[in-house]
Design a protein that fits this description.
- The structure holds 2 protein chains of 2 kinds.
- By secondary structure, chain A is an alpha+beta fold.
- Chain A contains 5 helices and 10 strands; from the N terminus they run E-E-H-E-E-E-H-H-H-E-E-H-E-E-E.
- In chain A, helix 2 packs antiparallel against helix 3.
- The radius of gyration of chain A is 20 Å and the shape is globular.
- Chain B is built from 28 helices and 19 strands.
- In chain B, a hairpin with a 7-residue loop joins strand 17 and strand 18.
- The radius of gyration of chain B is 27 Å and the shape is globular.
- Classes of the chains: A alpha+beta, B alpha/beta.
- At the A-B interface, helix 2 of A face helix 20, helix 21 and helix 22 of B.
Chain lengths: 218, 639
């Protein structure tokens, strides 16, 4: 997303005229106006990717109304945005039914489903510990500047892994991936088990049982 | 890979060996004149289709056989060459004898001597190899008389089947690169774009976006580095339009791209072609090499000062890489996953530079638009869909193959006049258009004119041009299950609705075809399909519910029969059928007894057999082998 500039645009947000900054996404503009839009893959510190699709809104521009992911839709002058409608609610509920079936025991999924009025999923349950928001992957590449992990496989078999599932030799063991993981399930040990030290070769990486942070053993 | 390695016969033509860079348009014109003169004098020649279909039928052996026998008979001066796909793949291998253009089909090795003796030697016709109209019984001498071709309008396929795709001379002799010469020396870039806009050409990859507007958007972007991409990642099951163009007339793609680059202001182009198309890769590589040698790619093309070059990139096999943003990501060496638009490729494409991406067929149209004018092109087709469209006509149709028809041609004309009707004259049930994520159009809409708007209205899409004919023995739930399974495997996994939703659709459909469908499943499919369609990130997800939603729209009763009555009306879903021997039809020939892998059928010769349903694994082998063809369905019958 391009940097927010001083240019101010006018958009119609849920029927009310609002100011928005040029370069902002619809999601950011809405949040600035105090309107909450649910998301599962958006993070202020990361480039938005528009993958969870929970943040869909109805956007009318140029005479056409479309359902768009608000986190990756830049505001345009004169654009009309509706953040809540029966259709939007139905889409969000269906997405939560899908995610609740994939990750029934992840707390943030349970909470989001509840918030959106989804009590149960009509689909057979899996018990995956990752719903592929990709925050860890983006944080490692964008914030840490390493890119030790990425997506492997396709479709519902997708997984976050270091390349070829091999222990990473570029990971610096900073733990940003585990810290940012909204599901609190990212395990650094699946990226690598040892850390190279400036002196003294390699050391084991261990996770503290009390604070859950990783540290390098002596 | 060098030119000489790739040249099929291992010999570079004499002209190539002494090829001189064409420095100006007059050099190109002089060369064309010389080539045509040389060809005109030759007289008799043999042209053998070496498209993938005919190769599978053994056309390369035919090529060798012709060369050997001609040489042995002292007729070595009769030219033998291979061409790209003619489209009539059902009847391969196809052989055409020039100059009379005598069209032989289904030619076998043992026919070669007859053709040489009679046709080449004495100018007589080998009657048995001519195409015989199955209805009227009339024999047709040349290709254009054959009904399969008569209703076609061949613009993209103008050269396919006529020229040797590995010979730039063949292409030049057939007016090749004349449009490029016209564009770069006689037109301004904006005039080129305006001509394409005027033509009304729309993207042939499926979405149908107006090509001229796309070019203009890219052209008007700031920045001096722009890219052109040709999307050759055709991956729809049963579709082979783009492959045949790349294999059979690669220079038409290069010429279109070079003209586009001139109009848009790009100096580098990429052809992204799937690695599963080795012949396309090889013929494109030869073509690029030749075009460079002749100065039709590279710096200062035809003395115009305009420079452009093309690189060929092989895709690694992901269907989703046909999606433009995923394709660009793949070229950049990153994972082939789509990203949201905007920014559109024209704004921020390959390596964040303005990029124009078009499909193979779109590019192949360009030179004809420049040569014959946008107005001419716009006179073909319907109000909003101009020109022609190539379809791969497959499934339960008599004349399987590639066809090119004007936009607006009806499904009836395509299936019956060109396709020759449904296989075994069975009843037409539906036509699936647009590849795996297209929709099924019921037989009741057979008079639907095929263009972008009409297909969308019927709930389907143009897609890249797959056309699958389905007969009465097709189960629509099974069809939806098949396509959704394909899409499940090809979903990249980035966005929730596509990754999780398609999989759940497949699970529900899988349940239904197994007879385990529950009340509420149909409604769940419907609401899930709508959400996936509306909320997915890219075109793959957004179109993936089409096979489900259209079959639900037109064949809901079949779903209901599966779910509520545990019955498959088309007798396809194995779990829902019972095989039994119909006593008064069975002659007791014992073929089914021998075919049954689990010995479920027994009985003495000449007496109606018995089928033990407790042993039967429903493999259908008995049904397949039963001799009493028309009665086959009855003799061992499914209920």
């Amino acid at each position: 997303v391009t940097a927010v500039t001083d240019d101010i645009l006018t958009i119609k947000l849920n029927g009310r005229k609002r100011k928005a900054g040029k370069g902002q996404s619809v999601l950011e503009a809405a949040r600035d106006c105090g309107i909450a839009i649910p998301t599962l893959c958006y993070h202020e510190a990361l480039e938005p990717v528009g993958s969870c699709r929970l943040c869909v809104v109805e956007v009318t521009a140029g005479g056409r109304t479309r359902t768009m992911a608000s986190c990756v839709t830049p505001v345009e002058d004169g654009m009309a945005v509706v953040t809540e409608s029966p259709r939007i609610a139905e889409i969000r509920r269906m997405i939560m039914r899908l995610l609740l079936a994939r990750c029934p025991s992840i707390e943030i999924i349970q909470r989001m489903a509840r918030d959106l009025g989804v009590k149960a999923s009509p689909f057979p349950k899996d018990d995956k510990d990752c719903y592929l928001c990709g925050m860890c992957v983006r944080a490692c590449a964008e914030i840490v500047g390493v890119g030790a992990i990425g997506f492997a496989y396709r479709g519902s078999l997708s997984e976050v892994q270091p390349p070829f599932g091999q222990e990473s030799n570029v990971c610096i063991g900073c733990g940003t991936c585990t810290t940012i993981c909204p599901a609190r399930t990212f395990d650094l040990n699946k990226v690598f088990a040892r850390r190279s030290m400036h002196k003294g070769g390699q050391k084991e990486i261990t996770r503290c049982t009390v604070c859950e942070n990783h540290y390098t053993g002596t | 890979v060098t030119l000489s390695q790739l040249h099929r016969q291992g010999e570079v033509s004499a002209l190539m060996a002494t090829a001189v860079r064409l420095a100006a348009v007059r050099d190109l014109d002089a060369l064309r004149k010389r080539l045509r003169g040389a060809r005109g004098a030759k007289g008799v020649s043999v042209s053998i289709c070496a498209g993938t279909g005919c190769r599978a039928h053994g056309s390369l052996d035919l090529f060798e056989e012709f060369k050997q026998q001609l040489a042995a008979r002292g007729l070595g001066d009769v030219a033998v060459r291979t061409t790209g796909c003619h489209g009539f793949c059902e009847r391969g291998p196809l052989v055409v004898i020039y100059p009379k253009r005598i069209f032989y089909h289904g030619v076998k090795l043992q026919d070669v001597s007859a053709i040489i003796e009679q046709t080449i030697g004495r100018g007589e016709i080998v009657e048995s190899l001519l195409y015989k109209d199955p209805v009227t019984g009339t024999k047709h001498l040349t290709e254009d008389e054959v009904p399969f071709y008569a209703k076609q309008e061949r613009i993209v396929f103008r050269n396919n089947g006529k020229i040797d795709p590995t010979s730039i001379e063949d292409y030049i002799a057939a007016d090749g690169y004349a449009a490029l010469a016209k564009a770069v020396t006689g037109m301004k870039p904006e005039e080129v774009v305006a001509e394409v806009t005027l033509s009304g050409l729309r993207g042939r990859g499926g979405a149908g976006f107006p090509t001229g507007i796309k070019w203009q958007t890219c052209r008007s972007q700031p920045g001096d580095q722009k890219y052109i991409i040709c999307n050759g990642d055709e991956g729809d099951p049963g579709a082979f339009m783009d492959r045949s163009i790349m294999e059979g007339d690669p220079h038409s793609v290069l010429e279109g791209m070079t003209i586009g680059a001139f109009g848009i202001g790009a100096n580098k182009g990429y052809i992204y072609v799937r690695a599963e198309y080795p012949l396309a890769v090889s013929n494109l590589t030869v073509a690029v090499d030749q075009a460079r040698t002749f100065g039709l790619l590279g710096e200062n093309i035809l003395g115009s000062g305009f420079g452009f070059d093309i690189e060929i990139i092989r895709g690694a096999g992901a269907f989703v890489c046909g999606e433009e943003t995923a394709l660009m990501s793949s070229i950049e060496g990153r994972e082939g996953r789509p990203r949201p638009r905007p920014p559109f490729p024209a704004q921020k494409g390959l390596w964040d530079k303005p990029t124009n991406i078009n499909n193979v067929e779109t590019w192949a149209n360009v030179s004809q638009i420049i040569l014959r004018g946008g107005k001419w092109y716009a006179s073909l087709g319907t109000e909003k869909s101009k020109g022609t469209k190539v379809f791969s006509l497959v499934g339960k149709v008599k004349n399987t193959g590639l066809i090119e028809v004007q936009m607006g041609t009806t499904l009836r004309e395509i299936i019956y006049d060109i396709g020759g009707g449904v296989l075994k004259d069975k009843q037409l049930k539906a036509v699936q258009t647009g590849g795996p994520s297209g929709g099924c159009i019921p037989a009741s809409l057979i008079d639907l004119p095929v263009d972008y708007e009409e297909l969308a209205r019927a709930g389907s899409i143009m897609g890249s041009g797959g056309l699958i004919v389905m007969d009465e023995e097709t189960c629509m739930v099974d069809v939806a299950h098949y396509f959704v399974s394909f899409l499940e495997e090809e979903s990249c996994g980035k966005c929730t609705p596509c990754r999780e939703g398609i999989r759940r659709m497949r699970e529900i459909l899988g349940r239904i075809v197994k007879g385990d469908g529950k009340p509420g499943d149909i409604e769940l499919l419907e609401s899930l399909g709508k959400v996936i369609k509306e909320s997915s990130l890219c075109g793959l997800g957004a179109t993936s519910p089409n096979p489900v939603l259209t079959t639900l729209r037109y064949f809901r009763d079949e779903y209901e029969a599966h779910v509520y009555k545990k019955r498959c009306p088309a007798k396809v879903c194995k779990a829902l059928i019972v095989y039994r021997v119909v006593a008064d039809k069975c002659t007791g020939c014992q073929r089914c007894v021998r075919a049954c892998p689990v010995h479920a059928i027994s009985g003495p010769r000449s007496q109606p057999h018995n089928l033990d349903p407790t042993k039967c694994i429903k493999c259908g082998a008995c049904y397949e082998v039963c001799r009493f063809d028309a009665i086959a369905g009855d003799a061992i019958y499914v209920e």
